[in-house]
Amino acid sequence: MAEAANFKAIGTRPIRPDGVEKVTGRANFGADLNLPDMLHGKVLRSPHAHARIKRIDLTKAQAMEGVYAAISSADFPQEVTLSLSKNILARDKALYHGHALAAVAARTPRIAEEALERIEVEYEVLPPVLILDDAMQEKSTLVSEDLRTNDDESSPPSNIAATQRFERGDVTQGFAEADVIVQEEFRVPSAHQGYIEPHACVATSNPGGRVTIWCTTQGPFEVRSATAGVLNKTVSDIKVIPSEIGGGFGGKTVVYLEPVAVRLSELTGKPVKMVMNREEVFRATGPASATLCKIKVGAKKDGRITAATAWLAYEAGAFPGSPVGPGCMSVFAPYDIDNFLVEGYDVLVNKPKVAAYRAPGAPQSMHAMECAIDELAQKLDMDPIDLRLKNAAKEGTVAPYGPKFPPIGLVECLEAAKRHPNYVNKPSEEVGRGVAVGFWFNIGMQSSAEVTIAEDGAVSIMEGSPDIGGSRASMCLMAAETLGVPYETINAHVGDTESTGFCNLTGGSRTTFATGLAVVKACEDVIAQCKARAAMTWELDVEQVAWRDGQAVPKPGVNIDVDPLSLADIAKTMSRTGGPLLGRASLNAQGAGACFSVNWTDVTIDRETGKVDVKAFTAIQDAGRAIHPSYVEGQMQGGAVQGLGWALNEEYIYDENGVVENASFLDYRVPVASDMPMIDCEIVEVPNPSHPYGVRGVGETPIVAPLAATSNAVRDLLGFRINDLPLSPPNVLAAIDEAD
Amino acid sequence: MSKIYVSTTVNGRPEDVLCEAHQTLLDLLRDEIGLTGTKEGCGTGDCGACTVLLDDRLVCSCLVLAPEADGKEITTVEGIADSQEGLHVVQQKLLEHAALQCGVCTPGFVVAAKALLDKDPNPDEKTIRYWLAGNLCRCTGYDKIIRAVQDAAQELTPTK
Fold first, then answer.
1. Domain A34-126+197-246+252-284 falls in which CATH fold?
2. What is d(CA A187, CA A367) in angstroms, rounded to the nearest whole number?
3. In which element (H, E) is residue A589 found?
4. What are the φ and ψ backbone dihedral angles of A490, each rounded to 5 degrees?
5. Of A192, A282, A546, A550, whose CB is crowded by the most CB atoms within 10 A?
6. Does the pLDDT at position A731 exceed 50?
7. Is the dihedral of CA A399, A402, A404, A405 positive or negative?
8. Residue A694: left (phi > 0), alpha (psi -120 to 50), or beta?
9. Chain A residue with minimal CA distance to B23?
């Protein structure tokens, strides 16, 4: 890639502009804001997984000294029937252990907590629906009595909220042509996003009905619309100011506290702060769907896949809306398959409503498929990478979910893996190795950017994407490259919903792609204005001026003897040439460009304890173009370790009544530094033609492959497969004992 | 409810605070003194985001009661950089290695890693990983944090 060598800023690894604030404790996160005369809100949560709420009596709480308000769902607009609204505060039924029932605002957090204990709730405890298989039975207890599959009023109520099905070719014929067939079932447990910062907000409502919310979120504009929806307000009544965000991974794309804090502020006339504790985060937010995936794959002796079917059931939690859709669309995405059938089920259970978690839906279904592919490789005695190369999707392949792939990097990643020294060096006898492929669609959506030039030529970017992993640095690098000025002269700021143009959330791996595109276009707008100012100064036509290396210059052949005008030169005189320089762009970005990866895990197993240790992990991924390679690697490494945590230890543990038994970081064990090796990365660059620098999103794909890569490594070492995750010590030990 | 008088030193500055008996050292720092650099990730001593030094001992400030800070010296993330010298080498290396993404765990890592290097200026990878095992990071997968601490150690005590 000759052009890559010509970049000056892109591909370098400077320090992020918000870095010093974040290593010195100055950066303000969700819980860091305090306002004068502020109250503290707390939420009462259901101790039952499923119960009819017969009565909520708030009077004793309201009577407490220091309590300013106590509310339940009755204090919210009843005409709003969004499931979001019913999740924020339960109406007739509590649907999971942790479902919010009531809230109070008090002078101190302590008083608010004491007030919660005085709220009287009368329940009729109902049997909970906790297991996917049970929930799908016709005679199952119903989570919601009026839910009908696919909103079909002619069918009886069901826990199956939605089904989907898509197919291509003739699977019966395809399987008939196969020389080998693999058919297996896989379960993946529910995992929490595990962001270190709990949900937090401060809301204040003025007597005129204007609301301001400070909160930690991936999407301030989505908080605005969701809060307006729940409270039956217009979005223009609400201003949302995003704080720095302490991790989200999809879990901070929905609202839990904000409408409650607004309502409490409206009732008390004071600002109200609400901060979840960790137990609340586990019981009432996130998690990712638990799933049951049944896969059947057939192939010829040479490895060519002839047919595949997937039956995928995803827990939605207490309200419809699991990511079974993307699960279905991603399950076969890496492969060019003529005959397939995919069926998906969105299933209600008495557990927290699931939220997006990094590539939502894909880790579970692709775990199943990538394990099945590994079994196929075993049966065919083929190298797992060669088998994947034989079937890999490439430019022009019609994706199972519809569109024809533009340039994608799966083959390049697989070939890079085959060459990689970590792959070439075969593991020793005591080490198992497993390979898997990862994929995510990526999204574009709406972004805006404004680029302001100060009178000394310094560049200030205003955009609306909360910086969750160094995106300000990427924006500054793309601006430096486009404008041709040093990175150090640029700063990037995340605005609020009234200080910058509309911007969708930081999610779908869209920020560097879509908001980056807006920043590039806003910089091009600045360049156009600078060229016009230079033309005016030189008394030339604007067509006679070029922008080169951060300077306006006469185009070659224009007969004029002038010194180039830098951005700083033009800025210095801008009051005389037309006023402030402000570039802007707003767009709905198309062509996000799918992202593929190849990962392999090397593991050892302690046969006495069943503990699986990750000895080495290698991630290869197509970034399109790595704007700041360190932050691309950071996504790859962080996603890898989240995926390894899901593969090895992470799961929700419920008792028979649906009570979460491990709602703490002590008992819900995410990987710690001593659990993990270094995560080796290789970035492949197959530029995305829909972005001026070739960017494709990299944030989500990294979590997908580690699940199956780890399962396949354990299978390699044990000689038999453990189909279900997590591969935790008790599960692995039980499987070893059974095999003996 | 009568309050308890706590006389303590935070980042070298005397602080006299009236606390309630149930308040933690984390509450004292964040809510009474306004030092919000120390973060609460769990409140149960499992995540390390609230790590501070209490008389040179690393503690989770959420597990220390505020009155226990009486007569003690506390160092928080706000006290690590020197107003004259600038960032501590650990902070500088975390930035250079892009070892933070969201940054909410970073204050705890800064305090813990500095304490490690004060005690053992030349730790091996395993030592660093075990020393920092009480600090959760969900973004980075730890790789770049470990490398940053190794690099900081290297800068403090260059090997021949």
1. Aldehyde Oxidoreductase; domain 3 (3.90.1170)
2. 9
3. strand A581-589
4. -120, 140
5. A192
6. yes
7. negative
8. left
9. A110
* pLDDT for res A6: 87
Contact A638 B140 (CB under 8 A): yes
pTM (two decimals): 0.98
Residue A378 makes CB contacts below 8 A (sequence gap 6+) with none
Write the CATH number of the domain with boundaries A291-442+593-739.
3.30.365.10
Contacts of B98 in chain A (CB under 8 A): 13, 16, 470, 628, 630-631, 633-634
* Residue A5 confidence (pLDDT): 55
A539 Cβ neighbours under 8 A, 6+ residues apart: none
How far apart are alpha carbons A545 and A529 in whole angstroms?
Answer: 11
CB contact under 8 A, B143 and A678: yes
Q: Do A674 and B44 touch (CB under 8 A)?
A: no
B100 contacts A19? CB cut-off 8 A = yes
> How far is residue A478 from each of residues A409, A473, A683, measured CA to CA in Å?
22, 9, 18
d(CA A438, CA A393): 12
Of A628, A637, A675, Cβ closest to residue B143: A637
* Chosen from B104, B105, B149 to mutate, greatest number of chain A CBs within 10 A: B104
Pick the residue of A18, A21, A22 with the most B CBs within 10 A to test the interface with B by mutation: A22
Domains A2-26+444-587 and A34-126+197-246+252-284 share a fold: no
Distance CA A25, CA B50 (A): 11
- Residue A4 — very low, low, confident or very high, per pLDDT cuts 50/70/90? low
Question: How does pLDDT run across A192-219, given as a tens digit for each residue?
Answer: 999 999 999 999 999 999 999 999 999 9
For chain A, what are the domain ranges?
Answer: 2-26+444-587, 34-126+197-246+252-284, 291-442+593-739
Decide if A241 touches B, using CB distance below 8 A: no
Cα separation values, B138 from A192, A613, A626, A633, B95, Å = 11, 19, 22, 14, 17
CA distance A622 to A631: 14
Q: Is the ipTM of this complex over 0.90?
A: yes
Question: Residues A448-477, buried b or exposed e (16+ Cβ, 10 A)?
Answer: bbbbbbeeebbbbbbbbbbbbbbbbbbbbb
Question: B4-79: CATH homologous superfamily?
Answer: Beta-grasp domain (3.10.20.30)
Residues A282-335 pLDDT 10s:
999 999 999 999 999 999 999 999 999 999 999 999 999 999 999 999 999 999
Contact A333, A410 (CB under 8 A): no
Measured between alpha carbons, how far is A445 from A80 in angstroms, rounded to an integer? 27
Domain map (residue ranges) of chain B: 4-79, 89-156
Fold of B89-156: DNA polymerase; domain 1 (1.10.150)
pLDDT band at residue B2 using 50, 70 and 90 as cut-offs: confident
Distant-in-sequence, close-in-space partners of A154: CB < 8 Å, separation ≥ 6:
none
Residue range A12-40, pLDDT digits in tens: 999 999 999 999 999 999 999 999 999 99
**Sign for the pseudo-dihedral over CA of A424, A428, A434, A438:** negative
Q: Residues A29, B105: contact at Cβ < 8 Å? A: no
- As beta bridge partners, residue B9 has B14, B73
Q: Which of B76, B102, B142 to mutate to test the interface with A (most CBs of A within 10 A)?
A: B102
Strand order in the sheet with A305-317: A160-168, A340-348, A305-317, A291-299, A180-188
* Fold (topology level) of A2-26+444-587: Aldehyde Oxidoreductase; domain 4 (3.30.365)
Two tokens, residue A372: 């099945």
Q: Are A101 and A53 in contact (CB under 8 A)?
A: yes
Residue with tokens 């005189």: A573
Residue whose entry in the numeric block shows the structure tokens 């009432």: A284
